[in-house]
# Entry
Amino acid sequence: MPLVKAKLPQAAQARKPAARAAKVQPTLRKAPKKEAKPRDPMGFRAGLSQRDPGFRRPSARQMQELWRQWTPKERKVLERLDSPKAIQEYLDSLFYDPSDTLMSVREILRTGRAHCLGSSMLAHYALLRIGYESALVGFDAVNDEGHGICVFRQRGCGGMLFGAISKSNFTTLRGRDCVYASLRELVMSYFDFHFNLPRGEKTMTEWMGPFNAFEKEDPNTWLFSEEPLETFEDTFDESKSYPILMRQDECRRDGKKQDTGSKRGRRLMLASKQVIQATKLGGNPHGFKPIKHSNFK
# Structure
C-alpha cells in the first residue's frame, strides 16, 4: 500500500503539465476557402481554343447517317446552302415567325417560317455540312426579348476569325462577316442594334455559348421532329453566360425605363429614330412588340 500511495502523486504531477499545455494551446480552425474568381468573367477568351467543345464537329459517319434521313426535296434545298452567304440569303427569304414555338429544321424547311433560334439551328447544321466549325450563341436582354445566332469560325493569319448567320425581324440583327477576332467582339457588334421599341433602349445584358447542339441535344430530334421542341431552349439557356457590363457598371433595371441622366446612365445612348426606322425595313409588322415599362408616363 505505501508503494502505491507514493506513486500516485508522481502520476498526478506527470498529468498536470499535459493538462496545462492542452489549456494553453489554442484550437486552430481552418479558414474557409474563398471561391475562386472566374478567370475570364466577360468571355474575352471564349471560343478561342482550337479544341473548344462548343465548336467540336460531329463525325463524318454521323453526318452521313443524318443526310440519309432527308427527303429528296429537302436535300435539294440543303445542297443549295453551300456558303455562309447562301445560308444567310435563304434565312432572309423565310417568313419571320413571331410565335414562341420552336420547331425542328425539317418543319422550317416545310413551312418556310422561322424565328431567330430555329433559323440558327438550320444554319448550324448547314455550316457543319459544308465543313465549317459552328455553334449557337444566345443574347439575354432586359425589358426586351433575347436573340439567338449561329456563329462560325475560320483560322486566319493572326488566329481565329468569327462570323455569324442569323434571322431576325430587325434587319440589323442578322448576319456578320467572318472578320471578328473573338466571340465577344462579334457579340458586341450586335449591342448598338439590340434595342426595344418604341424608345430604342439598348437592352442586351449578357451572352451565352458557344453551344454545341450536336452534343447537348439529340440531333435526330431538333433536325427531324414533327412536334415542337420542348427541351432544346431550356438546355440552351444552361450554357455558360458572360455579362455585357460588370454588375458595378450596370444601370438598367427590369421593368424600369432606362436611366439616361446619371453618370452611368449617360454611357448608353438611345437608338436614333433613323436607326429604328432602318432596322424595321423588310420585317414582319406583327413581330415588332412594343415594351411597356411600369414607370412610363
